[in-house]
Amino acid sequence: MLSFSRIKIELAELENYLKQNIQIKQICQEIIYNKIVVQAALDRNIVITEEEIQAEANCQRRAMNLEKASDTFAWLNSQLITSEDWEAGITSVLLRKKLAEVLFNQEAKNFFGQNRLSFDCIDLYQIIVPYEHLAWEIFYQIEEQEISFYQAAHFYDIDEKRRSVCGYEGKIYRHSLSPQVEAIVFGAKVGEVISPFQTEQGYHVALVEKFISAELNDKIYQDILAKMFNEWLANELIYLLHSSDK
Q1: So what's the pLDDT on residue 1?
Q2: pTM for the full model?
Q3: Which pLDDT score is estimated for 243?
Q4: CA angle 96, 100, 102 (to 5 degrees)
Q5: CA distance linking residue 166 with residue 239, whole number of Å
Q6: Which of 167, 170, 197 is CA-nearest to residue 182?
Q7: What is the CATH number of the domain that holds 238?
Q8: Same domain, yes or no, for 193 and 226?
Q9: Are residues 198 and 239 in the same domain?
Q10: Domain span at residue 128?
Q11: How far is Cα 130 from Cα 137, in angstroms, rounded to an integer?
Q12: Distance between CA 203 and CA 157 in Å, rounded?
């Protein structure tokens, strides 16, 4: 039984709610994933130390500005969990990370080496508008120096957030773009205003501020590792389900 303020919730009610809102399968799947991870870690003698749990807990507390022990306990109570529940969750996350490293450390590095080009990225600015004639008008105004690219983005872009940052889209990886857009933006020169092109979002006028050659930094490594690990988990689940049917 769970208690929320003065209201009691039976576990059967929780189960029924998950079923009625079509969430029970996802929750069960995550529980099975956790069992797979625990067994695989046991098979490989992977353990999580108290020091590692404490270090991660401290990181989470700092991220949530829980400076005092009383702040932490108040947060735990608001989440309807105990400190033991929290530490168990931390252990589960750390166990997945360690197992992923053991299973796919070298494969992730090899994958990056074999696909380095797709991890090149650019610092991209763009203006997206709904009409082709408006895109060309903006392009010619920028070319004639009647308005700067950044002013045009601030005035005309269809997206409020992009307007507020004068068209800055951020660092964009080559592999995240469609072949059409990849060819256009990676074929441009730094500082060149790219003439209008169309996607399902609208009509784009773009500017590449910088090309960044791929390096295997921690973010890219963790992204590759997570993808490989999630695919492995999914395959292990399929194997278990098929085995249980026999």
Answers
A1: 66
A2: 0.76
A3: 76
A4: 120
A5: 50
A6: 197
A7: 1.10.4030
A8: no
A9: no
A10: 121-212
A11: 13
A12: 10
